[in-house]
Amino acid sequence: MNPPASLNLGIIGNCSISALVDDQARIVWCCYPRYDSDPIFHALLDSADGLKPDGSWQICLEGQQRSEQAYEPNTGVLRTRLFDAEGGAVEITDFAPRYLLHGRPFRPLTLVRRVRALSGAPRVRVVLRPRCDWGATLPTVTRGSDHIRYVGPESTLRLTTNAPITYVIDETAFTLTQRLSFILGPDEALQAAIEDTARLLEEHTIGHWRAWTRALAVPLEWQDAVIRAAITLKMCLYEDTGAIVAAMTTSIPEAPGSQRNWDYRFCWIRDAFFVVRALNSLSEVDTMEDYLRWLRDAIGDMAGGHVQPLYGIGLEHELVERELPHLSGYRGHPPVRVGNQAYEHFQFDVYGNIVLGAAQAFHDTRLLRQGTRQEFGLMEAVGEQAFAIHDHPDAGMWELRTRSAVHTSSVLMNWAACDRLAKIAQAFELADRAALWRQRADLIRDKILTQAWSERRQAYAATFGGDELDASVLLMVEVGLIDPHDPRFVATVDALEAALCDGPYMRRYEAPDDFGRPETAFNICAFWRINALARIGRTAQAREIFEAMLASRNPLGLLSEDTHPATGELWGNFPQTYSMVGIVNAAVRLSAPWDSRI
Asked: 69: which of 89, 150, 399, 459 is 20 to 30 A away, CA to CA?
C-alpha cells in the first residue's frame, strides 16, 4: 500500500521556483517554471490511495525503517536522513540555488538533490517521474552520457547526474558507494563537473541564507521559529515581478470532505501587505521594495478606480477557475481547482491594504527607492476610491461567494487608507491634503465605532448593523483604529473568545457560509487574538496561546492555513503566508527585550 500523504512537508525555494519535500525525502509538489504553473510533481493532489510515485521524485532506501529531517540552521537547505534495518543510512540534501552572482541574485529554475551514505552499505533506488498537464501527460524520455531529458508538450527538463543513468531510468536499486548529485532544471548542459557544481551551489546557497538571516532584527525569544517563518515568507516572493503568493499549493481542503478547496498560488494584495509588514518588523525591507514594484504596476491601470483583490504573479487579471476531475485530490478530497473566482469579487478592504503596504516607503530613509510625491498622488487615487466606497456592501475579506454586506473589516481598511494618507501628506508638509485625509479618516472611524457595535452581543460585529461575530474585527487594534484598553474592544475580545475559540484555536466567524459552518480553526485568527490579548495586558494568556500554536506547527516549523481543533492536524493550503506572518508578529510582540538579557 502506498504511504499516506500529509502536510509534514518542508519547502525549498529560491524566489523563482519552489518544491515541497516530505519526511521520506519525496518531492511531492513543484510547479514549473512559476509558482502558478502546471506542476511537474503533483503527487500531493492525487493521493486518495496514498502517495503514488507518479508525479513525484523519490530517493528510496531499501529496507527503510525510519527517517529524520531538519533544515540546515538558518537556511533554506533541507536534509533528510533515512535509516534501514541493517545499520545503513543515507542523507538527502535538497535546495534550490540562490546567492549573489556578479552583484545580482542568482536564482536558476533548478532543483538540486545530493545523496550520501552515512553508514553501512545502503542500497537506494531513484524514482523520478515528472508529469505534464496536471498529471495527464507523460513526458518523452531521452538520455545522454550524463543526463536524462524529459520532453513535454511545452518545455523540456534536463536531469544531470553522476548516478548511473541506466539505473535512474529503469528505477533499479544499487549500492551507494559515492556521493551522488542530481541537478534538475532547464535543458542546458553544465559548464563544469557535476559533483563540483553541486557542491559549490550548496555552499553558496548556505552562505547566502546565513548572511540573510544574520541581518534580521530578530526578537530575543523564539528566534528559531521567527527565522524559519521569515525564510518561508521570503520563499513566497516571486522575485522576477515582486509578487507574493498566498501559498504554494492549490486545493488542500480547509477540512476533510468540505470542498473548501481553493487555489492560493496568486498574489492577494491583502495577504501581501501582511507579509511585507511582518518582514519589515524584522528590518528585512528588500521584500517590500520588490513587492512595491509589482504593486505600482497592479494599480497603474485601475479600471474606473476598481482594483481586484488578487492578480496572477505576472499581473494576470483573469484567473478563471476550473476543476480537474482526473485528480483524486489531497487524500481523496476533491475537487482540485485551478484558478480562483475571487478575482471577480468586490472586496473593498483592498484599497486600505494597498496604502498600508506602501506606507513605510514614504517614511523609511534606508530604502534605495523611497516613495515620491508622484507616487503619493497614485496612493491618493487609491484613497479616493477607498473613501468613495468605504461603507458599500462587498464580499468581505473571507470572500463570501453568495452574499454581500457592509463588512466591518473592509470599512476598517478604508479608514486605514485615509489615516495613512494623512500621515504621508504630513511627512511631505502638505497641510491641506493632510487635513482632508484626516477629516475623512475621522468620519469613517466614527461610523465604525457606532454602526459596527452590537448592543446585544456587547461586541463589534462582522457587519454594520449585524450581530454575528467575526475574528477580523481584532484588526481594529492591529491597524490603530481603537485604543486596546477601550472597554468596548475588551468586551469584543471576551465575546470572540466565548463564541469562536476552541482552546488556543480560533475560527474565522460563527455564521454559516456558502459551505455551512467552518469545521477547522483559521490559524491567523489565533495570532490576531494573541496580539489583542498582549495589547490589553493579558500577556501571560497570550504567551500560553502562542506556545500552543508553535506546538501545532509541523516538525519543520511550518503552518498551513487551518488546524483541526480536535485532532491538531494541519489542513488548508501550505505553507500559508498568513500563518507564518502570525508567528513573526506574535514573537515580536511578546518577546522580552534584548536589554533584559545583555
From this structure: 150
Q: Is 169 helix (H, G, I), strand (E, B) or coil?
A: helix
CA atoms within 13 A on the CB side of 327: 33
Nearest to 96 by CA among 266, 219, 224, 234: 234
Distance CA(123)–CA(175), nearest Å, equals 4
Supply φ then ψ for residue 296, to 5 degrees.
-60, -40
Give the closest residue to 7 by CA, choosing from 560, 563, 564, 565: 560
Average pLDDT over residues 440-468: 97
Residue 156 CB neighbours (<10 A):
14
Helices (H), 397-430: 408-427
List of residues 6+ apart from 150 with CB closer than 8 A: 130, 139, 140, 141, 156, 157, 158, 159
C-alpha cell at 593: 527585550
Give the whole-angstrom CA distance, residue 288 versus residue 360. Answer: 9
Checking if the pLDDT of 164 tops 70, the result is yes
- Does 467 score more than 80 pLDDT? yes
- Give residue 90's pLDDT: 98
Question: Which whole number is the average pLDDT over 193-204?
Answer: 97
pLDDT category at 130 given cuts 50, 70, 90 is very high
Q: Which amino acid, residue 445? A: R
Beta bridge partners of 41: 30
Q: Beta strand pairing status for 39-41 and 26-31?
A: antiparallel
State pTM to two decimals: 0.96
Q: What is the pLDDT of residue 512?
A: 73
* CA–CA dist 511, 518 (Å, integer): 9
